[in-house]
């Protein structure tokens, strides 16, 4: 066998997954968003070809559910064919989003150099010329609740053993708890590397043995921010000599936080700070389109003014951001700096008012709001409820409005303008 051997580990391609809701926004990079997942996988393929990868491991969720037609599958196969030309073999497992056994995706014929591991029981593929054995099991249904790791075979002696699995290790929140296992379960198998999928954030859970989430190859929304990509493994003899993260995303999502303090005297100052932060995000993305959510944070005298000028700031940022940056949303999460507890303790009319708001919220005494809201309900209550905008008979809505009224009061005291 020839060493070193290069292996690429990728997961969660979610090919042709829509970036939901992006079409609603004026000026949104819709075409870039639609093409992003395919372009990201093309980058994975080109990485394999350029770096001479002997194996590509795909740890599930290749697609985003069942297809309407064969186009997604045929496109995927055409890219796999390019790997045949470069001598890269492929081993894959199905994830929870792929597990539609009776759908058209189950009938897709894969090229001979591509091996899809079984779903009903663990399967091993041995590559004697590389000195590598890959053990894995795909998802037989969209909601696998069993710990699949416990059924994986013992490592094969004399080979580098790799586990390939779409799983939730340790019950990571924000993702379905499918094929759940513990990190200790992985270690007990005795493998050299676990190529994991399902969690979209890249994470190295352990290095001895390696247990790695490569993360998704392309972020699809503001909850999937930062660089996305795959892992490149260098194998020397019977050990992993190195694991390198390689960026593949075609479009990047960023949550840009703009901290404000006392040195920003005007809303224009805050806007300028945001534009500087967006320019930095564009530089980090190295030519990619950036979809950015901008959040202002910190304790500042501008809190009130900035809250009331949020829409104007949004327009300014969209107009003057770098050409490669699209501003998805502007959030004002600053605080006024007023000592609310001190105001409560100060007595007088203001303290009493804040105290009553506190009591209503703590006791959920929305009945106390009946009289103040009576005229509003009579004049506009039905229309607001019918339009779906506000239901003034709903307790949670009333408590939310009470909180908003308190914020407005404190804004005004801090110098904000209505």
Topology at a glance:
Blueprint: E1 5-10, H1 30-51, E2 55-59, H2 71-86, E3 89-93, E4 114-116, E5 123-127, E6 132-136, E7 160-166, H3 183-189, E8 193-197, E9 203-207, E10 210-213, E11 229-236, E12 239-247, E13 251-259, H4 267-285, E14 289-299, H5 303-308, H6 310-320, E15 325-335, H7 340-345, H8 348-363, H9 370-387, H10 395-413
Parallel strand pairs: 1-2, 2-3, 3-4, 6-7, 7-8, 8-10, 13-14, 14-15
Antiparallel strand pairs: 1-11, 5-6, 9-10, 11-12
Describe this entry's structure for a reader.
The protein is of the alpha/beta class and 418 residues long. It folds into 3 domains: 5-247, Purple Acid Phosphatase, chain A, domain 2, CATH 3.60.21; 252-335, no CATH class; 340-413, no CATH class. It contains 10 helices and 15 strands. The strands form 3 sheets. Strands 4-3-2-1-11-12 form a 6-stranded mixed beta sheet, with helices on one face. Strands 5-6-7-8-10-9 form a 6-stranded mixed beta sheet, covered by helices on one side. Helix 8 packs antiparallel against helix 10. The model has no long low-confidence stretch (mean pLDDT 88).
């Amino acid at each position: 066998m020839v060493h070193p051997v290069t292996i690429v580990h990728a997961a969660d391609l979610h090919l042709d997954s829509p970036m939901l809701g992006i079409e609603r926004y004026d000026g949104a990079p819709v075409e870039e968003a639609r093409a992003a997942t395919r372009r990201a996988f093309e980058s994975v393929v080109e990485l394999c070809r350029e770096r001479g990868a002997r194996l590509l491991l795909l740890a599930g969720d290749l697609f985003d559910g069942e297809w309407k037609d064969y186009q997604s599958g045929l496109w995927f196969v055409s890219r796999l064919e390019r790997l045949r030309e470069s001598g890269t073999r492929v081993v894959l497992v199905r994830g929870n989003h792929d597990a539609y056994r009776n759908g058209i995706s189950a009938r897709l014929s894969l090229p001979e150099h591509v091996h899809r591991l079984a779903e009903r029981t663990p399967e091993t593929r041995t590559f004697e010329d590389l000195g590598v054995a890959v053990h894995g099991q795909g998802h037989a249904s969209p909601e696998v609740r069993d710990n699949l790791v416990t059924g994986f075979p013992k490592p094969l002696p004399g080979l580098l053993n790799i586990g390939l699995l779409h799983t939730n290790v340790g019950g990571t929140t924000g993702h379905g708890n499918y094929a759940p296992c513990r990190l200790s379960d992985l270690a007990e198998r005795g493998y050299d590397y676990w190529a994991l999928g399902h969690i979209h954030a890249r994470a190295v859970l352990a290095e001895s043995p390696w247990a790695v989430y490569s993360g998704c190859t392309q972020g699809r929304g503001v909850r999937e921010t930062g660089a996305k990509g795959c892992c490149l493994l260098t194998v020397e003899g019977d050990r992993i000599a190195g694991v390198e993260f390689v960026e593949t995303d075609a479009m990047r999502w960023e949550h840009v936080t703009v901290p404000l303090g006392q040195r920003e005297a005007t809303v224009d100052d805050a806007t300028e700070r945001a534009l500087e932060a967006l320019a930095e995000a564009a530089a980090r993305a190295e030519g990619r389109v950036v979809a950015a959510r901008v959040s202002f944070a910190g304790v500042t005298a501008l809190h009130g003014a900035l809250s009331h000028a949020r829409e104007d700031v949004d327009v300014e940022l969209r107009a003057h951001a770098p050409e490669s940056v699209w501003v998805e949303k502007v959030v004002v999460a600053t605080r006024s700096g007023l000592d609310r507890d001190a105001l409560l303790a100060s007595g007088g009319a203001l303290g009493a008012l804040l105290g009553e708001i506190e009591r209503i919220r703590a006791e959920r005494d929305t009945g106390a709001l009946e009289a103040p809201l009576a005229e509003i309900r009579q004049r506009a209550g039905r229309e607001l409820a019918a339009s779906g905008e506000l239901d003034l008979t709903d307790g949670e809505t009333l408590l939310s409005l009470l909180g908003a009224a308190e914020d407005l009061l404190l804004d005004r005291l801090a110098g904000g303008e209505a």
